[in-house]
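Q: Fold this one first, please.
A: Sequence and structure below.
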Amino acid sequence: MSVTAAKGFSAAGVAAGIKQDALDVAVLVSDELATTAAVFTHNQAAAAPVVLSRASMSNGSAKRAVVINSGCANAATGSEGAANAAAMIDAVASRIGCRSGDVLVCSTGTIGPQLPMDLLVPGIDAAIERLASTPESAALAATAIMTTDSVPKQAVVERDGWVVGGMSKGAGMVRPSMATMLAFITTDAIVDPEILDHALRAAVDASFNSLNIDGCESTNDTAIAMASGASGITPDPVDVLSAIEDVCGDLALQMAQDAEGASRVVIVDVAGAATDDEARSLGRTVTDSALVRSSFFGGDVNWGRILGALGSSNIKIDVQSITISYEGVVVFAKGAPVSYDEMALLDLIEDGDFGISVVLGRGPGTARIITTDLTPEYVMFNGERS
């Protein structure tokens, strides 16, 4: 159970025919207007649904529903694409009895094609007819938003009398800056709009914005949080943030584990930066490097590639102050390599997931980046015609 674990929400997922023999339309509906927060991609080629949903959020933070399709990103589709995204919103609003301004829209899939509205609108009708608050309906919705994902991604955190649930999709074209990835978070806690907005943005920074599968920021990245208040409980804002961070962190890790072609997850911890933002930027620079991520695939302790990536950043570094470790074993410090038991360390990282630590010696800033190795399978998968 995920998005329906919180009271006051129902969901559905159906096959409308956008994708062949697969679920491709999902709806998430609150029984009443729900406090809502959202963050979106910074990509300048943002898709039509992002543009519409962003504008909708600027006009109010109370929403009833989200409609999502997979199989077509509705990106770079011009005025027709904008009209189609608006038609998706109108179709949901008319059927659940709310204003169009109370509905958000998301799409994911191939960039360029127009949505097949002759299939999509009947699909939305079918999804609304099947709305339910069951674990099964949540799982169908989580499956319907998938593109190249191999498994649906769901998470739930239970607190004292209230719940946070979530679902997400993303296995490639993932380097969020927003907040192809989508995430939907629900809670039945009573949460003020400002508190929910802060909690979502902080949680996204600590999770999705710290996820880097292939260095490519999508045109469609969106994360939406909705609070129904149906539990009747108003938690401490710190507890709200903690619960949403836990759900988003769980979903981000699931996305890394399901990354296209990846054979291992690598956690890169950066410490000693001037600020947390600086630490995250340096960590992303390291994990953007194809050379670095190729060394992850080979289980190669190639600290030189990490150092080179750090040096390519526009953030000032002091090589003499940097320490680099693999699985807790220091391999570089004070501007020079450090002697270590090479065979013992290779045994630790030859297979499976592992961690790397980069300490900069500049200040209190820290960040954790979740990434994967770069494999031949990834290149082959993404070299195929789409």
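Q: Good. Now the second chain.
A: Here it is, same layout.
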Amino acid sequence: ACFAAGRTSLVVQDHASDARDRLVWRWTRGDAVPLAALGDPLGGATSYALCVYETSAGMTALARPPIEIPGGGVCRGKPCWKALGGVGVKYADRDRTPDGVESLVLRSGPAGKPSVVLTAKGATLAPPSLPLGQDPAVTVQLVNDSGACFGAAYASPAQKNDAGQFRDKTP
């Protein structure tokens, strides 16, 4: 079961120029999340994957292969991951390898305080094919190999869902 959010948003943009492709997912004001649920990405023991599922005629499938955010690693001569004052972790990779992820910020805390913000962009992103099947919903899950899951479902109709962009939010 995934931790539920109080508010989420998803933006996927697929431009003719791959350098301008973008995906931003925000998961905020969620269920209580203990720091231990975030695992140990600093030491490389925990990796993350963002999965975007579309639904057409009641059949749910991955809209694209999972977007991988590896644990550990060195990005531009510095550790890719750093601790955020005992409340969370942050991943930063300006080179956006392997799957276009530039940053991932995970914050733990009591109900209403946890948050997740993932930003991916550029030619290495390969966004899902648009428009996304939303019959009845598009589902996004960020999972780690420690068993934690952060999820959101975007019910039809989306604010925007066409060949160039998917944009929606939950209350």
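Q: Anything worth noting on the second one?
A: The longest strand covers residues 48-56.
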